[in-house]
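Q: What changes when pyridoxal-5'-phosphate is included in the input?
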Amino acid sequence: MATTDPRRRVPRTDAVLADPLLADLQSSLGRDRVRDVVREVQDQVRRGDLAPEDVVAAVRDDLRRRVRHTQVLNATGVVLHTNLGRAQLAPAAVEALVASAGCTDVELDLVTGVRARRGRRALDALGRAVPAAGGALVVNNGAAALSLVLTTLAQGREVLVSRGEMVEIGDGFRLPDLIESTGVRLREVGTTNRTRLADYAGAVTERTAAILKVHPSNFRVEGFTSEATVAELAGLSRDTGLSLVVDIGSGLLQPDALLPDEPDADTALRAGATLVTCSGDKLLGGPQAGIVLGAADEVERVRRHPLQRAFRADKLTLAALAATLGSATTPTYEAVHVPEGELRTRAEDLGRRLAAPVVPSVGRVGGGSAPGLDLPGWAVVLPEPYAERLRLGSPAVVARVEGGRTLLDVRCLPTERLDEVTAAVLAARDHLADAGGSSGA
Ligand SMILES: *Cc1c(COP(=O)(O)O)cnc(C)c1O
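A: The predicted holo structure follows.
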């Protein structure tokens, strides 16, 4: 027993540090930093948690995890998972990110050699995608876009908003608090389930600067409900000279037949919205960004506000957004629109490789988009303990736990990723078998 006890075979620190597989990490992170991790990993061997021959790989893994986010395969069936970073970027957007890592012409015209409109390719692409918008602006996220627009239009004055649209966007952040923190006073009108045009009209005073319509994107009120349409509010805005701001949230630029309840930017502007705001990393399928669209002079006013400088998007975002808008499709679009039959084929393929059964599985758009919309799909079923093991693998696989089972929903796992998923599950299976074997012995 003594000679085979792995605890007695802990590789020496010097020997581990001399391994060529750790050379690059020592030159980039420093020898001390790597040595600290080697000692921790050696402790795992002493405790019997790790085989001695796996030390080098474990050190590499550990160091990589400390400086990089861990790549995750999304097997949740939720397309825009906020905790997983929302939209997965299109290949062209990924290339654009890498290509923009150094110096770029983000704000320079290389022909004339003078300063140019920052991020003009993304702005031009937005203009092409939303013909009703004469101007566009890109900031850090949807919350920044909305704050900046309302600050510009209504600081120190009132904005009318329906009581049914006072939403919390997640992690305890509420739009009303965000808006009021910018020095804009919210005047709530109507009730939670019904707000009519007359409620807005009756609340207009000389203090009112704008009307705000927010798409309550992460919940749905059902039953006895009504709301004023953008077109109705646009009429009131024309009659009273107030601006009409529409926060559509999800970033659909044009209507999508599969998502009939999701508002889109082009339709809102055609219906008379002064400015539309939305996110870049929801249904638009791009990087985290906030987008402002509207008539050129209205957008320019927002762009000139001093706070814009605090919210402006960086070169990577602008490059990825331009590339996303230039792509024929995005992983987000594909995952939402993939036919159920194709998902079944994909799940059966994965199920065969894993010798595991498949079941129907309901997916979601997520990320606070299209609430209540079921996306029928398929999943492979594994025993519950797999969920944790898969999360700890590399790449990590985040599955859904439901009814005491682990479900691998294949909606966001394109066919070309199935090899990786298979390898991850087989590694988890080995690990669970080892753990089961030793505890049973
Ligand atoms: C998601 C959302 C926001 C916040 O956008 P972020 O990009 O997450 O900052 C604001 N309003 C609505 C309606 C949303 O759906």
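Observations recorded in class: Residues 72-85+332-434 form a domain with the Aspartate Aminotransferase, domain 1 fold (CATH 3.90.1150.180).
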